Amino acid sequence: MDYDVIVIGGGAAGLTAGIYLSRAKVKTLILNEGTIGGQMVLTHEIANYPGVENVSGYELSNIMKKQAKSFGCEIKANLRVTNLQLQDEIKSVEVNSKDVYTANAVIIATGGKSRTLGVPGENIFKGKGISYCATCDGDFFQDKEIIVVGGGNSALEEAVSLTKYASKVTIVHQFDHFQAVEHAILEAQNNPKIDFIMESTISHFYGDEKLHEVDIKNLTTGEITPKEIDGVFVFIGYVPNTEKLKDTIRLNSFGEIIVNQNYETNIKGVFAAGDSIQKKYRQITTAVADGTIAALNVIEYVNIQKKELTEV
Question: What pLDDT sits at residue 134?
Answer without folding.
Answer: 86
